[in-house]
């Protein structure tokens, strides 16, 4: 596992990289939460590598401050995370995700097929990669603000899986239903709602972590990636 540097349109940024034992292999670009490329994101990449994927996680906050690594364990870190979320340029983030995707596909350890996976803010970006990129497939966990992005839904032409927390504190029952109705007619979209679960139910060690729900969602994601990137 290592960190490499990618040259983007506006400058260079760091990308955490985890490579499986057997290559070339399918690739996955992991989109961070609002805490930066922290231990949780690096562990996620390492786990994906054990499942047979080349997993990379770009530092999407580099334009604001490179190398951000926060946790969800203190109020000052939460305050900083929300500050970063407010400063973040989503369109530039998608630009960096696409740059990372293209770089990954061209690398010798990748077999040329690649998708995306994101959580929270990253879940929103995974949805937008389904509408604004040629990624082979995309998976989003409890993406924020999806109800405002349904105008792009007709651009989804590759498989997209969304994991939605029924009791998401950063969403509402009305928005969840809006997303389900807005995407329900697209055969490329699969939506799973986790009853009784709150935002970040898959963040191990987090306040709302649910082991059973996380395992179910992760198993579904791995199967989905294997089916669409195999």
TrEMBL record:
Organism domain of life: Bacteria
Pfam families membership: DLH
An annotated Gene Ontology molecular function: hydrolase activity
Keywords assigned: Hydrolase
Coiled-coil annotated residue ranges, if any: none
InterPro entries in UniProt: AB_hydrolase_fold, Dienelactn_hydro, Dienelactone_hydrolase-like
Dienelactone hydrolase domain residues: 13-227
PANTHER family attached to this UniProt entry: ALPHA_BETA-HYDROLASES SUPERFAMILY PROTEIN, CARBOXYMETHYLENEBUTENOLIDASE-RELATED
Protein name, UniProt field: Dienelactone hydrolase family protein
Organism: Pelagibius litoralis
């Amino acid at each position: 596992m290592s960190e490499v540097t990618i040259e983007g349109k506006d400058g260079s940024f760091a990308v955490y990289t985890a490579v499986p034992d057997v290559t070339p292999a399918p690739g996955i670009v992991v989109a961070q939460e609002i805490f930066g490329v922290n231990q949780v994101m690096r562990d996620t990449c390492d786990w994906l590598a054990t499942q047979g994927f080349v997993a990379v996680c770009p530092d999407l906050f580099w334009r604001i401050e490179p190398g951000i690594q926060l946790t969800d364990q203190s109020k000052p870190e939460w305050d900083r995370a929300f500050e970063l979320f407010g400063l973040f340029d989503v369109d530039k983030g998608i630009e960096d995700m696409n740059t990372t995707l293209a770089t990954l596909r061209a690398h010798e350890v990748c077999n040329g097929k690649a998708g995306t996976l994101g959580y929270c803010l990253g879940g929103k970006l995974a949805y937008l990669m389904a509408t604004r990129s040629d990624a082979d497939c995309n998976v989003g966990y409890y993406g924020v603000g999806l109800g405002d992005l349904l105008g792009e839904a007709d651009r989804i032409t590759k498989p997209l899986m969304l994991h939605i927390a029924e009791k998401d504190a950063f969403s509402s029952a009305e928005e969840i239903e809006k997303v389900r109705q807005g995407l329900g007619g697209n055969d490329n979209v699969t939506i799973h709602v986790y009853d009784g679960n709150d935002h970040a139910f898959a963040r191990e060690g987090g306040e709302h972590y649910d082991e059973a729900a996380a395992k179910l969602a992760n198993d579904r994601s791995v199967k989905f990636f294997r089916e669409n990137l195999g």
